[in-house]
Design goal:
By secondary structure, this protein is of the alpha+beta class. Helix content is 36%, strand content 23%. It has a single domain, classed as Aspartate Aminotransferase, domain 1 (Alpha-Beta Complex). The protein is built from four helices and eight strands, in the order H-H-E-E-E-E-E-E-H-E-E-H. It is globular. The two termini are 25 Å apart. 28% of the residues are buried.
Length: 138
């Protein structure tokens, strides 16, 4: 069975954020860091080389594959700021309609900049997703 490459590390979150080249992206990251830490009550931790995660949960698939993952997190990618909403988006249609300019993947929310979205809606989305993950995964 393959080993996960993205695992918690002891790398400095602050050093990682300080190295974000684009000033606006770096400020957006600090805003998301504060929001996610406030919502989860968990300290930020580097997961792999480029993701900041908050909290964790243990999963077991029907295939018996299992592991640990963060409850929510983000990564300042070059093209967009990627936010990880681990519960996915299907149960949050109303919030997604009010969020603002964004794209989604299975559990990834892509925004070009925070000015394009409603931060109160984002906070509600993160809060509901984290609550769902904690309920489902203990």
């Amino acid at each position: 069975m393959a080993t996960l490459k993205t695992t918690p590390t002891e790398a400095s979150v602050e050093a990682f954020l300080d190295a974000v080249e684009d000033d606006a992206r770096r400020e957006d990251c600090r805003t998301v860091l504060d929001l996610m830490q406030r919502v989860t009550g968990e300290p930020p931790q580097m997961w792999g080389a480029s993701i900041i995660g908050f909290g964790s949960y243990h999963y077991v698939y029907e295939s018996s594959r299992e592991g640990d993952w963060f409850l929510t997190g983000f990564s300042p990618r070059k093209r967009s700021l990627t936010l990880y909403i681990m519960a996915g988006f299907s149960r949050y249609d109303e919030l997604m309609e009010r969020l603002g300019k964004h794209r989604t993947g299975k559990s990834c929310l892509y925004v070009n900049r925070l000015a394009d979205i409603d931060l109160d809606v984002l906070e509600d989305l993160v809060r509901q997703s984290v609550a769902h993950m904690r309920k489902v995964h203990g």
